[in-house]
Structures are given as structure tokens and as C-alpha cells.
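Private note to self, pasted from the team thread so I don't lose it. C-alpha cells:
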């Protein structure tokens, strides 16, 4: 005989009572409702309903809860996955070991960044479990990055700085961690996590053994400010040489020199030195415009000579503009992993900066309306 809990309850408690479905046994009512008691918070002890989904999954079952086991079919399906997906699953199966190793290996004091980095590395299919374990041990011992080269001015292969393919992979995976927070740029937190000698700094971007460094990753502009208004710049140039067609709505430095050489043939009286001084004073400042403007005395204008001086003075202006501020730095590090010929450069002066092999530099004198920093160098060092 099948007894209903509700019937028994009615026999024990006199009087009419409203039906309570949690007194029914599974199978008595297709629309049965189950309840559970809250175990914490302000509502501790209160009965709440268990959703149909949670009933089906057995989320709140206490006894007899079925444990998940992998069948031969599951394993066969696993073996059909891509290698990258297999690596993700394999690393997740060993999560506890990696979590412990990651916690002791990754450097820096920001636990939020460490946890985020750990999750990225575990979920990535770019490294096998063995590779991840090995590179974490290299990071722990300070071997993943060649800090001595990173603090020495010069031009380097990417492999000279990141001591293994796995180290470079980790850097690329972590390069956006922390970017945009507290004025931190790409790559800064990654370097901090990967070396005990590199620290995030309240001045500059990073501190390496007490020296301040500015980091530019994959084309960071050599400027923090927006360039001059394009309409006003065109009006300024036209006030000296007359109207001209802008064509593509921008005027880069190479075409600027060509334009001036054409105009000077028709009108030798154009004051090119004064024009160039005003142009580069608005892009940089008066101090750094002076040595550039001197080169406009000799005609025809020599593009290579002028361009090199603009590169040199752009660096000097950027470094000088940071002196005595929270953004002050001693050396600039450029890391380029984005182009066909990657590279790393460490520079401290404008003369050194000119010598760095780079992706073609052709800054805009008149920028586009949306490219607010097109008047400044996009730093992509490479091996010459």
C-alpha cells in the first residue's frame, strides 16, 4: 500500500490544513514541488522551493547523489578534440598543482593580476602542461627574461630578451593583463609578473633595479598628447605657401618636404625656417623645434636629414616632457612582436633612438580627424 505523507500528516493534526506539496512523495504528483532549507545568511532556516532544473540535476541531493564518471565513449570523444583543446582540459585536471606552482612562481604584489594570469595560462591551449610547468619554474627562478640585456641600451632580437619560446608565449598571453588600469599600458604587468627584478612603478611604467623605464609595446606612440588640430595646421602652412590640395586628408612629413620643395621653386622668398619652426613648435615645443628649423635654410630640402632630426627631437621632447613628473623615466624600452621582423630596443637619448632600426617612420604633419596622435612616432623596433 502506498501511503501519502500528506494523508498521514492530516491524521496526526486535527482540522483542515492547506495542501503542502513538499509532503508528497516523488511520483504522487506530476507537478510536485520540493523544498530545501537555507543554511546561511539572514534567511537561514527558511524553506524555499527547489527549481525543476535543480531537481533534475540533483543539485541539492544529499544521499545517493550520482557521481560523474567518464565512459569509454567520453574518452573517445576527448581523443577526437584538437591538441589545443586537449591541453586545456589536461591542465584543468591538474588545476591544484598548477595553482600552487603559479602562486609561488608569478611575481608582483597584485593578487588580482596573479589570479587573472593564472586563469589565462590554464585555459590557453598554446602551452602543454609540461611546458607550462617548466616556464613557471623559470619565472620563479628569474630565468624567463634576460634582465641584464633589458637594462642595457642597444638593439636586440626578441629571443635575446625572452629566453625561450615558452617565455615569449607567456608574455604574449599576459600582455594585456592590467592594461588601462591606473594608467598602465600593455606589457607592463606581464613583465612585472615574469621577473623578480621588474616592478610596477608609481613613476615611469616599470622599475628595474631602481631605474625607471618607459615601455612601448607593438607601436606605442612617442607622445601622450593629441597633435595639433588638422584644420588649423593646414591654415598655418597655407599662410606661408598659399592654398594646396590635401588629397588624402593627411599630409605626412615626406609629402610635406616634397610640397615645400615644389613651392620654393615658384617662390624662393618663402620663409621656410619660420614656417617649420611654427609647425614643429605646435607638434613638439619651441626648444625642440629650433634644431629642426635650422635644416630648412638649405634648399632643396633634404628629407632624410630633416626626418632624422625630427625623430631625434621627438624622442628628446618626449623624455624632457616627463622629467620631474610622475611619468618620469630614464630609458625607453620598445618591444615589437607584431611585425614580420620583430625586435627589442633600449634607448636613453635621441641620438640612440635615431640609430634604432624601425618600421618606416613617416609621421603626419597634418593628421586625420580621428588619429589624434598621428603627429608622433609609432615605435616598432626591429633587427636591421
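Design output:
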Amino acid at each position: 500500500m502506498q501511503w501519502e505523507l500528506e494523508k498521514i500528516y492530516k491524521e496526526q493534526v486535527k482540522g483542515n490544513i492547506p495542501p503542502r506539496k513538499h509532503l508528497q512523495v516523488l511520483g504522487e504528483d506530476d507537478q510536485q514541488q520540493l523544498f530545501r532549507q537555507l543554511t546561511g545568511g539572514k534567511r537561514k532556516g527558511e524553506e524555499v522551493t527547489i527549481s525543476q532544473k535543480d531537481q533534475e540535476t540533483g543539485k541539492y541531493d544529499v544521499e545517493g547523489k550520482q557521481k560523474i564518471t567518464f565512459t569509454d565513449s567520453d574518452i573517445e570523444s576527448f581523443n577526437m578534440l584538437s591538441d589545443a583543446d586537449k591541453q586545456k582540459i589536461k591542465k584543468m585536471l591538474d588545476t591544484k598543482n598548477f595553482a600552487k606552482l603559479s602562486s609561488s612562481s608569478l611575481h608582483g604584489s597584485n593578487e588580482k593580476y596573479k589570479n587573472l594570469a593564472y586563469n589565462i595560462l590554464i585555459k590557453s591551449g598554446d602551452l602543454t602542461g609540461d611546458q607550462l610547468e617548466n616556464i613557471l619554474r623559470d619565472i620563479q627562478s628569474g630565468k624567463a627574461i634576460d634582465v641584464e640585456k633589458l637594462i642595457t641600451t642597444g638593439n636586440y632580437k626578441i629571443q635575446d630578451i625572452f629566453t625561450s619560446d615558452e617565455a615569449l608565449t607567456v608574455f604574449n598571453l599576459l600582455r594585456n593583463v592590467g592594461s588601462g588600469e591606473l594608467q598602465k599600458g600593455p606589457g607592463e604587468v606581464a613583465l612585472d609578473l615574469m621577473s623578480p627584478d621588474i616592478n610596477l612603478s608609481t613613476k615611469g611604467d616599470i622599475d628595474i633595479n631602481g631605474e625607471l623605464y618607459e615601455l612601448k609595446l607593438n607601436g606605442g606612440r612617442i607622445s601622450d598628447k593629441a597633435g595639433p588640430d588638422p584644420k588649423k595646421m593646414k591654415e598655418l602652412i597655407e599662410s606661408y605657401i598659399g592654398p594646396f590640395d590635401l588629397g588624402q586628408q593627411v599630409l605626412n612629413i615626406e609629402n610635406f618636404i616634397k610640397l615645400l620643395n615644389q613651392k620654393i621653386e615658384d617662390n624662393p622668398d618663402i620663409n621656410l625656417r619660420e614656417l617649420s619652426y611654427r609647425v614643429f613648435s605646435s607638434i613638439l615645443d619651441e626648444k625642440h623645434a629650433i634644431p629642426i628649423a635650422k635644416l630648412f635654410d638649405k634648399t632643396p630640402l633634404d628629407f632624410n636629414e630633416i626626418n632624422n632630426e625630427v625623430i631625434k627631437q621627438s624622442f628628446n621632447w618626449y623624455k624632457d616632457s616627463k622629467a620631474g613628473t610622475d611619468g618620469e623615466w630614464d630609458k625607453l624600452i620598445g618591444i615589437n612582436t607584431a611585425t614580420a621582423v620583430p625586435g627589442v630596443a633600449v634607448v636613453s637619448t635621441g641620438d640612440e633612438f635615431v640609430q634604432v632600426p624601425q618600421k618606416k617612420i613617416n609621421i603626419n604633419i597634418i593628421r586625420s580627424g580621428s588619429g589624434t596622435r598621428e603627429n608622433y612616432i609609432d615605435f616598432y623596433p626591429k633587427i636591421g
